[in-house]
Automatic annotation (TrEMBL):
Biological processes, Gene Ontology terms: regulation of Rab protein signal transduction
GO molecular function per UniProt: guanyl-nucleotide exchange factor activity
Protein's name in the database: UDENN domain-containing protein
Pfam families: dDENN (PF03455), DENN (PF02141), TPR_DENND3 (PF25570), uDENN (PF03456), WD40 (PF00400)
Native source organism of the sequence: Magallana gigas
Length: 1318
């Protein structure tokens, strides 16, 4: 691998700004090669300025190799350019050193020399020959030194595929090479080259003209000679003055079009100043540009100098996006807003599109701009921004493509049917009429008609209207702004101003276009089930109105949408996800509990949100790293750069800057063949910002190393994370189509398959409910562990039929409450209100009158007093009726006949769910009960089929599934009054999980209204998952998994450690939350995403404390190691503190500039440097268990001047709390509580909330040291407590309960019944 393999003497950069420079044209070494070989001799001289000539690749230059191809292939052994130490003599201009033909005698011409050139020329003009020569690397024929041969044998290939070399000259001169009588203007155009694997290479071409004298030879051939005389006097009759174009092409892996244009323009400026030194300057620029790195995505830009001019390489804003180095505002000056939206739509539905313009440079800029506008969607088909005159036949190729060509070929373009033609000169879009029997426009595998393909659907109106604001702001013209600016004479200052202004405009446009993509496809998230790799295509389309549906139906057929959907299903975190989460409307937050299928006939309207500030007046100044001078020795340059980067790492004040410097440092160590140091930096980079980690480079380095060397490296301290970095990537392949409909399996279902089917069909995701349903469908007398195919098919059919009945009931939206769902509709029956149907919803019972569908409320669920099943007589027949009594004394009777018992059971379950929800404040109980009703109904209806397994005991199976009915009958819903008055809500973070986990950590963060960030509750679970709730509505906003737990266990490879998951959550500043586990995960509060991990602790992190207003943080691991961090830099602010003989550190506090550490047996007071200043032993008066151990401690600040701060510590296995004065050595108080142990404590004003192992919370008066209230909190131990700015107290429980209780502390009363104010 270049720059990395052991033993290689080649020094090059993996992230170089340019990979290769090519010089294309004709000169005295090639002669004039006419396009039409029939034009020779006198005819060619007469048609000199009218004919076309075939350009040739004259030379190729990489970072360490230069090849000339004419008059014969040879390597330039004087490259890289040797620079003198003196500033006055920057360039070596010796003809012998460069061995170029620029320095031939100007006064006469040597025919013998020309004749030899002619004989050689004929064998070296084909592109294939050039490509082969570039691979052969042959030295001069006259050089026989073995050292040269050895160096060439070890040389690397040029970093450009052969196919690029074979065709590049035709794209450098898309209209063919033409010789001019007068000097033409220098011009620039841009290329995008795509290889067979879809990898793109970017090129900038600058074409300039050099003066030549054409001499007619004795054999009739024409030979050009460079004219450096500057004399325009007449020449001999057999000679002609002319100008021959030369194209210098800079090729790069990165799309730095404007920066490459600047550097090439300056190079041409110098060449035209001293034309005889063309190759001197080309070598100088090529070497500098190929040895200059590109910055990683982030904040740091790179500046380098050539001669007396500086150039800046700006970084990409996002790790997932390529750099944008073109003016994105140009399309908004050219096209009206409506046309821009039409072009975007044409691209998104993957039409066959051709852009035409009279300016080749504009073609690439406009086409690249539109591809940036649709990100994160990516064009996956043929993409050729510039078609040469010889490749116009590609327009007739079948399939989908996006191409560009000169407007002079507009007539040819219009002859191809089915093309969407975008005319840049006129700012318009048109569609060529399709030619009969022409199938070129049909994509393979699609069944679209020609009419459908020619139709460009309109972008949905709501999102389009918001995008018009971006269009208005993006119509920027420098001339209008410059009217108020004074004239500037500092070229560098003016260049800097324009660059920053364009960057600000680009940021605005990129943000606006991303906002458009989020608004268009936000509801994809709603219909995606990540855990089952499913997307509900039909539900997504059903949520769209008729005018919008056409757009989405076409887009969903495209390759780019399928790639976008795959990223969403794989839960990829990219810039689209970050903005979607940031701008997600409250109503669209992921529900924290069960969802009930939408059983009301309305569209789920997707919201479009505008959040991008349309302000282009502010510039964002990025820190700049200035590259050192590139001297005569590359190794010296590399070492000096490493030194400067090392200094920058130490001085950087922000972790993102530091990440950029570490990235560059790793690349330069790799260029120096120092693999271990390179890997060390990349491992450090992974902990700071894993998104910019060059994973392919790390993998290649590891592949170059021997297995023994690699294993030895992984065993070293600090290199353990290398196993994770070089791990095999997770396959993106999915075993089924992502958007396929969910079909009933044609086989018997075992439990795991049953769980997936029920969850994907959105019947329920609650593991306990699924388990009960599985057991209900298999009666106890049937000894089998699967559900037969017929039973599940009947059950599913009944569940879907009930859904259809509810939707077809005919109730209008105005007759339903907000978010109300119809669950069950009776058959037509006689009632007290007339003939009609009884409808059960999740809120109430309603009567729907026959024919008119007039709706009347019978009763709310909360007001039901009694359900009475009776038998009445009608026309001498016994009829089963249901009588409903409510708390208001009214009654309602329905003659339900044979469905009475089933309907009554459903009402009882829904009624019980409402009662349980009101009593326990469990906000999920109503939704869970509604789901139970739907499942019980499907169970009862399918049980009528004699072929089902539960046919014989359908009623018993249904009662088994009615969880809340049984829960209420057993009295579990009864909560003590003193608990009920303080309890506000309960939420279940374990809903939908296969196994319930302990709530280990809770954190409340306040909202930031100016950034559209709501108050949030962060929940750390025992399996490493962190769930984030909107603390205003207690709805789940986001969920992600910490995977480092499993990585840690893999690396240790010794024994399976006890899994603690997320142990602590702390908001270290206003922007970041740190999560402790096997490492420290740094989460951005605004986007709820983590890209940074600190892995310095070798064991589990048990506690984190932020100090000095978020400037520093202390972290502690269970093995007694405490580290102090600079939060901005993400570096250790001081050497780690090692507590001797401590293997059970539980928690730390920071108080009065001292660190307080709690272990099982004692509390230690440390100085800032780690010196032990005080030690408090933990002893219990009458211990039941030995030894007595402490599980938690807090520090209570004194309220008055005459009081002291106190330390409160809770016993792990005893109901006792010890209290010390802050400077005492013995406990001043012992508080006895009737419980099995104290697990956590939190301070709320002057009250202590103590959570116990038996699920109770004791509220203790800190002055009297007495518990005045006991709350029945959970069915398992209270494992975590959190004070939400005195607004709430939140408690999390052990895995048997796994829920979170939300308490209102200001409603707390004393034993006498009076309120305690806060």
């Amino acid at each position: 691998m270049a720059g990395g393999p052991a033993g290689s003497d080649i020094l090059c950069l993996q992230n170089s700004f340019a990979d290769l420079m090519l010089v294309v044209g004709l000169d005295e070494n090639t002669g004039l090669i006419p396009e039409l070989s029939v034009i020779e001799g006198e005819g060619m001289m007469k048609n000199l300025f009218y004919g076309k000539f075939e350009p040739q690749v004259l030379c190729a230059i990489s970072s360490n190799n230069m090849m000339h191809f004419f008059p014969h292939p040879r390597q330039d052994f004087e490259y890289p350019l040797q620079q003198l130490e003196t500033k006055q003599n920057l360039f070596l201009k010796s003809a012998s050193a460069y061995n170029t033909l620029d320095c031939i005698p100007k006064s006469k011409f040597n025919r013998a020399t020309h004749q030899s050139r002619l004989s050689i020329r004929s064998t070296s003009v084909t592109p294939g020959a050039i490509s082969r020569h570039m691979s052969m690397r042959r030295p001069y024929a006259s050089l026989k030194k073995t050292t040269y041969v050895q160096n060439l044998a070890s040389s690397q290939q040029f970093p450009v595929p052969d196919e690029v070399i074979k065709s590049i000259q035709y794209f450098c001169f898309p209209d063919d090479l033409q010789i001019t009588e007068q000097k033409a203007d220098t011009s620039v155009h841009f290329l995008v080259l795509t290889d067979i694997h879809g990898n793109k290479t970017y090129a900038t071409c600058i074409t300039f003209y050099r003066p030549y004298i054409i001499e007619k030879e004795y054999d009739g051939s024409l030979i050009p000679h460079l004219d450096l005389s500057g004399d325009n006097s007449a020449v001999a009759p057999d000679r002609t003055r002319c100008y021959i174009p030369v194209c210098c092409t800079l090729i790069s892996k990165y799309a730095y079009f404007e920066t490459m244009k600047e550097s090439l323009s300056y190079m041409v400026h110098l060449i035209e100043t001293e034309s005889e030194d063309m190759y001197t300057y080309i070598k100088l620029f090529a070497h500098r540009l190929t040895m200059t790195p590109t910055p990683p995505p982030g904040r740091v830009a790179i500046e380098f100098c050539i001669h007396d001019m500086s150039f800046t390489i700006s970084p990409s804003q996002e790790a997932e996006k390529q750099v944008i180095d073109i003016p994105l505002y140009l399309p908004f000056l050219i096209f009206p807003p409506d046309e821009i939206l039409r072009i975007l739509s044409a691209i998104m539905v993957e039409n066959r599109i051709v852009f035409i313009a009279s300016n080749y440079a504009l073609l690439t800029v406009i086409m690249e701009s539109f591809l940036n506008f649709i990100l994160p969607f990516e064009w996956k088909y043929t993409y050729v921004p510039i078609l040469s005159s010889k490749s116009l036949e590609l327009l007739e190729a079948p399939g989908t493509f996006m191409m560009g060509c000169h407007s002079k070929y507009k007539e040819e373009v219009n002859q191809v049917g089915g093309l969407v033609v975008v005319d840049i000169d006129e700012g318009s879009l048109s569609i060529n009429p399709e030619i009969a029997d022409d199938s070129r426009s049909v994509r393979s595998g699609d069944s679209d008609s020609i009419e459908d393909l020619l139709d460009i659907p309109e972008i949905p109106e709501e999102a389009a209207k918001l995008f018009l604001n971006v269009c208005r702001k993006a119509r920027f013209q420098f001339d209008l702004v410059d009217t108020k600016r004074p004239s500037h004479f500092n070229l560098n200052a003016e260049r800097s101003y324009r660059r920053r202004k364009i960057q600000a405009l680009n940021d605005l446009i990129v943000s606006g276009c991303l906002e458009l993509m989020v608004n268009l496809f936000r509801s994809v998230v709603t219909e995606t089930r990540v855990e089952y790799k499913r997307f509900n295509k039909q539900a997504f389309l059903d949520s769209k109105s008729g005018s919008e549906k056409s757009f989405y139906e076409k887009v969903m057929k495209t390759s780019m949408f399928k790639k976008f959907l795959k990223d969403r299903i794989n839960d990829k975190t990219d810039y689209w996800v970050k903005l979607e989460v940031k701008t997600r409307p409250q109503a669209k937050s992921t529900e924290s509990g069960p969802s009930v299928p939408n059983r009301r006939p309305q569209l789920r309207k997707q919201s479009s949100v505008a959040v991008i500030a349309l302000n282009t007046g502010q510039f964002h100044n990025s820190p700049v790293f200035r590259m050192p001078a590139l001297g005569d020795k590359v190794i010296v340059y590399l070492k000096e750069t490493i030194r400067l980067l090392s200094v920058a790492v130490q001085k950087s004040q922000h972790f993102q800057e530091r990440a950029s410097y570490i990235y560059l440092l790793g690349m330069f160590y790799l260029a120096c063949n120092k693999l271990t140091l390179a890997l060390e930096n990349f491992i450090s980079l992974a902990s700071i910002d894993v998104q910019i980690l060059p994973k392919l480079v790390v993998t290649k380095i590891c592949q170059q190393m021997k297995e023994s060397e690699l294993q030895d490296l992984i065993s070293r301290p600090g290199f353990q994370a290398l196993s994770d970095l070089m791990g095999a990537p997770v396959s993106e392949s999915i075993h089924r189509k992502l958007e396929e409909s969910v079909n009933i399996p044609e086989k018997d279902l075992y439990y795991d398959e049953f769980v997936e089917c029920v969850s994907v069909m959105e019947m329920t995701s609650d593991t306990d409910t699924i388990g009960r349903l599985f057991r209900a469908l298999i009666p106890s007398q049937i000894h089998q562990n699967f559900i037969d195919q017929e039973t599940f098919a009947a059950f599913t059919h009944c569940w879907k039929e009930n859904n259809k009945q509810c939707l077809n009931l005919g109730i209008s939206d105005k007759d339903l409450l907000e978010s109300e769902c119809v669950l069950r509709v009776s058959s037509l029956c006689k009632t007290d209100y007339g003939t009609g149907r009884v409808a059960l919803t999740d809120r109430r019972l309603c009567f729907v009158k026959d024919i008119s569908s007039e709706t009347r409320e019978i009763t709310r669920l909360s007001k039901i007093l009694e359900l009475e099943k009776k038998t009445m007589f009608s026309f001498l027949k016994q009829v089963k009726v249901l009588r409903i009594k409510n708390t208001g004394g009214s009654r309602f009777t329905a003659w339900l006949k044979e469905e009475r018992d089933d309907f009554c059971l459903l009402i009882e379950e829904m009624w019980a769910g409402k009662v349980v929800s009101d009593c326990t404040k469990d906000i999920h109980a109503i939704q869970k009960a509604a789901q139970n009703v739907l499942l019980v109904d499907a169970l009862l209806q399918s049980g009528l089929d004699a072929e089902t397994a539960h046919h014989g005991n359908r009623e018993e199976a249904a009662r088994q599934l009615c969880y809340y009915r049984k829960y209420r009958e057993e009295g579990h819903h009864n909560v003590p009054a003193e608990t009920k008055e303080v309890l506000q809500n309960r939420i279940d973070p374990n809903y939908g999980e296969r196994e319930r986990k302990t709530v280990h950590a809770l954190l409340y963060t306040p909202g930031v209204p100016e950034h559209s960030v709501s108050p949030r509750l962060w929940v750390g679970l025992g399996d490493g998952k962190i769930k984030v709730y909107n603390a205003s509505h207690w709805l789940l906003e986001s969920e992600f998994v910490q995977t480092k737990q499993s990585v840690y266990m893999y690396i240790c490879n010794i024994k399976k450690y006890e899994t603690h998951g997320c142990t602590c959550l702390v908001a270290v500043d206003k922007k970041h939350v740190w999560a402790g586990s096997y490492g420290i995960f740094i989460i951005d509060i605004e986007t709820i995403r983590s890209n940074k991990t600190l892995m310095d602790h070798q064991e589990i992190v048990v506690d984190i404390v932020s100090i000095d207003d978020g400037r520093y943080a202390f972290t502690a691991s269970i093995n007694g190691i405490i580290m102090k961090w600079d939060i901005q830099k993400l570096t250790q602010a001081q050497p780690p503190i090692h507590l001797e003989n401590v293997r059970d550190l539980r928690s730390i506090k920071y108080h009065q500039e001292h660190i307080w550490c709690g272990t099982w047996q004692k509390i230690l007071k440390l100085s800032g440097s780690g010196q032990i200043l005080q030690e408090l032993q933990f002893t219990v008066s009458e211990p039941k268990f030995q030894p007595a151990e402490m599980d938690c401690f807090i520090i209570l600040k004194a309220e008055g001047e005459n009081t002291k701060d106190e330390i409160w510590a809770g016993c792990r296995r005893e109901g006792e709390i010890l209290v010390w004065d802050i400077d005492g050595t013995e406990p001043s108080h012992r508080i006895q509580l009737d419980c099995r142990g104290i697990s956590d404590m939190v301070v709320q004003e002057r009250r202590i909330w103590a959570g116990s192992k038996d699920g109770r919370i004791y509220i203790i008066n800190s002055d009297s040291k007495k518990a005045f209230k006991t709350l029945l909190a959970h069915d398992d131990a209270v494992r975590s407590l959190c004070n939400a700015e005195n607004r709430y107290i939140l408690s999390g429980s052990g895995s048997s309960d796994g829920k979170i209780a939300i308490w209102t502390p200001n409603d707390t009363r004393t034993e006498s019944g009076t309120y305690i104010g806060i």
